[in-house]
Design goal:
Blueprint lengths: L1 H21 L3 E10 L6 E5 L13 H10 L3 E4 L12 H13 L4 E3 L3 H6 L7 H14 L2 E2 L3 E7 L2 E8 L18 H6 L7 E6 L5 H7 L3 E4 L8 E2 L3 E2 L14 E5 L2 E5 L16 E10 L2
Parallel strand pairs: 1-14, 2-3, 3-4, 4-5, 7-8, 8-9, 9-13
Antiparallel strand pairs: 2-14, 6-7, 10-11, 12-13
Helix pairs in contact: 3-5
């Protein structure tokens, strides 16, 4: 009996040490899509679900990885912060400030943590609003149910940010979004140029594609926390088993949806066969 208990304790200790080290690591994942709407390659780095985590002092390792990729833009589909941990807002702010100072355009939309932080009944709302102002002062473009247009190499690109209602994140329930929600919030998708959409929750990927987003970037699921090699994610943050849209690249018709595993964690600090990632997407001309 004592031998069994000893083995269990050793395994538990080894697992704890492994997880502590695993949570300090991230990988750079490269994706590529083709589009007739661009004349030259447009590269976007995706920073999702940072949750105020720092890779090295002042996120030095993460910043170096982004700079090495030389992206044309950085897309942030939500959850840079953890709602209640207002002291951590400065970590996210510093990262965005450094990216903007380096001259990289940064486009940000809200995840569920930002949406909750902006509620009038949240006691830290003033801190969140100040943080938001500082993001804009740094040069970040905040897109919550808004769009902006940019030009890259002659290509006309529309970037839209969708802020989802909090009911769509309710734990223990199948994700739900009212029909026509995207069109009511964002109008019609751009058809005479590349339409990019930032949308935090990946469960609605088919609706994003149906709306007309050529390229959608999502986060939220953290890759499913625990993955089984060859099968995929076990559990979503909403406690749904084996979520279909967990992480990686999905093709819906002629549209692409990319779901980041995220860079940070909160509440459940677990990553099993599910390393954090900086996703880099290259949109290349269609051959």
């Amino acid at each position: 009996m004592f031998e069994i208990i000893g083995i269990i304790c050793v395994i538990a200790l080894m697992y704890a040490v492994w997880q502590k080290q695993e949570l300090k690591k991230f990988q750079v994942t490269h994706y590529e899509m083709r589009s007739a709407k661009v004349a030259e390659t447009v590269k976007a780095a995706v920073v999702s679900d940072l949750h105020s985590f720092s890779y090295g002092e002042k996120n030095g390792r993460l910043l170096r990885a982004i700079f090495e990729e030389k992206p044309d833009m950085v897309l942030v589909p939500g959850d840079l912060i953890v709602t209640a941990k207002t002291q951590g807002y400065t970590v996210a702010l510093h990262l965005i400030q450094q990216l903007c100072t380096a001259g990289i355009p940064v486009y940000v939309s809200n995840g569920n943590h930002e949406t909750r932080a902006g509620l009038p009944d949240f006691e830290g709302q003033a801190d969140f609003l100040q943080y938001n102002r500082q993001l804009e002062q740094a040069g970040a473009v905040i897109l919550n149910n808004q769009s902006c247009e940019v030009t890259k190499g002659g290509a006309r690109i529309r970037i839209s940010g969708l802020e989802l209602p909090l009911y769509s994140y309710q734990k223990g329930h199948r994700p739900y979004l009212e029909e026509g929600y995207l069109k009511r919030q964002l109008g019609k998708a751009k058809t005479d140029g590349l339409q990019i959409l930032l949308a935090h929750h990946p469960a609605f990927a088919p609706q994003y594609a149906a709306w007309g987003a050529d390229l959608t970037v999502c986060g939220h699921n953290h890759g499913g926390l625990v993955c089984i090699p060859g099968i995929g994610s076990v559990l979503s943050p909403q406690f749904m088993l084996f979520p279909k849209y967990d992480a990686g690249e999905f093709t819906i018709g002629e549209k692409k949806v990319y779901i980041s595993r995220g860079l940070g964690t909160h509440t459940f600090h677990i990553r099993v066969f599910n390393r954090a990632e900086l996703a880099v997407i290259a949109v290349k001309p269609k051959q």
